[in-house]
Amino acid sequence: MNENELKELARAIERLIGPHLEASPALRRAVAEAGAWLSRLAATGNDEPAEGVGAGTTFSPTDTVPMRLGDHTVDVPVTGTAEEIDRARRSARSESPADQSMSYSEPTDPPIDLELVERRCRLKADSCRLLIERRAAASSIDPTDREQESLARLNAMIAEAKAMPGCFLWAFTRDRPQPGDTELTIIAETYEAHADAASLVRSIDAAPTDADDQADALALFAEANSALRAAVELSWLPGADRDQSDGHRWLRRESSLRQIFIERHMTMHDPADPSRSADLRARIKALRSRIDLDRKRNKTITQAINRIRYHAGRVADGNETEALRHWKAIDETVTRLEELGLRRADRRIAEAIGSEAATSPAAREFPKLVGLVTRALDRPEPTSSASIEIATRTRTWSSQVLHVREMLRGRNLVVVGGEPRPDAISRFIEAFALDGVDWVPLSEHGSSAPMLAPIQNEQTALVLVIVKLTGHLHADMAREYARSADTPCVMLTAGYNPEQIAQAVLEQASDRLTAATGRATGRS
Predict the structure, then answer these.
(1) Which tens digit of pLDDT belongs to each residue from 266-312?
(2) pTM for this structure?
């Protein structure tokens, strides 16, 4: 095998299995072991020179050349003259542009255009459906008219694909065995789901979005990406689909940059079911609708806060004859904000009113609201950027979050596991109308004692243990401390956004919290 043939072999193998090697450490190890086994096998062969070959061109089957497969290198046994083998080794040591493109994390890697991914996926879905239609037309009694119409659409799709970088409509390839109609329908639906998910994650960057919604969007994209990978295996394509590969690289890079852990469907060993793409698309649509609703709601809240600020400014101007009218407008606006889920004690309302308006003579007509404003202004301001960011947004919560809110309203929450996150604490307080959150940081082999006092606090209504971030000893001690304090203890085995917390609370502690709420109501 000469140098050019060796290079072509290496490139062919890299194109074929490179995307799979990138995604699977186990496969990389297996390929390395296979290469080592082949090398040992070749070394046991006949060492005699080939018949008819002179002394100047002796071949040695024990010589090896390093060959890169994905991001792993194995030694491959080769034959040739000493000069040819030396050239092959030098060539293997020099990195080619193709080598550089294998790693998504390299600075030279071009950014992935998700809008282009979405457009290509929609077109591929249409091409799969058109192939089904053309088959049906070909088997009809008079296929002429339908054939001409579908042929015109086919040519238009091909022209559109040619205008897009990297768009290959494999369903129109004539010399390949195409999947059946059932398989094509599944593949088309997974392309649509992948396009929907790409559009969703693009939308979360278009405007401020809750961190939990970002995590949910990336998780749905991962599921759609995994389902597409599984669906394409039903086709004749020998390797990964370009858009599936681009989507996976985007997910790996962005989840790392955003520090979002995607729990499912990021490896070949955890595939999504392509036959459930209709359900997946419904969930993508539901999340997008919720995000859009939250953004509209936050816009309404911002406008209301600005209206309060305007009327408070007029009160502060000192016109006593108009002050009462402006205070009535403030009170009416605060009532509307309550209907949107904000508490009257919300700091945003207090800051919009301000201390000057709160101490005006007209404010005496609204003692309850003024008292809440005064207390809110006396509390320390949030200092972290994450807390400030969360304070500017309010989201729409599900019925299960609102149900748990009524159980926890005005009480404290103790969180065990990991390091305190101000943004998460702000979300907990907002979602469940809490008075406060005690997030207890614990070292892996340290004492569990720091969580004892917060758990035994009379104001503590619930203890949350983030299992993945807590050692078994700390989790057991948290459960024991909670038992001794007669406080419900909930184990979080998945994430810890308010929706996941609410679900876990309703599954593990609903009866106890309902009973505790009833006792508290009776005492009041």
Answers:
(1) 998 999 999 999 999 999 999 999 889 888 888 899 999 999 999 99
(2) 0.60
The position carrying tokens 């390091």 is 419
Q: Dihedral (C-alpha) 24, 26, 28, 29: value to the nearest 10 degrees?
A: 170
CATH number at residue 490: 3.40.640.10
Q: What is the residue type of 504?
A: A
CA distances from residue 193 to 10, 286, 491 in whole angstroms, order as listed:
35, 13, 33
Please indicate, yes or no, whether residues 329 and 408 belong to a single structural domain of this protein.
no
Fill in the DSSP letter of residue 272.
Answer: -
340: which residues sit within 8 A by CB, 6+ positions away?
A: 297, 300, 301, 304, 394
What residue type is assigned to position 26 of the chain?
A
Domain that holds residue 506: 399-522
- The confidence score (pLDDT) of residue 405 equals 92
For residue 84, being part of any structural domain is answered with no
- Locate tokens 């086994």: which residue? 37
The domain tally of the chain equals 3
Q: Nearest to residue 331, comparing CAs of 358, 294, 299, 355?
A: 358
Q: What angle do CA 513, 518, 522 make, to 5 degrees?
A: 145
pLDDT for 147: 79
Cα–Cα distance measured from residue 210 to residue 260, given in angstroms and rounded to the nearest whole number: 13
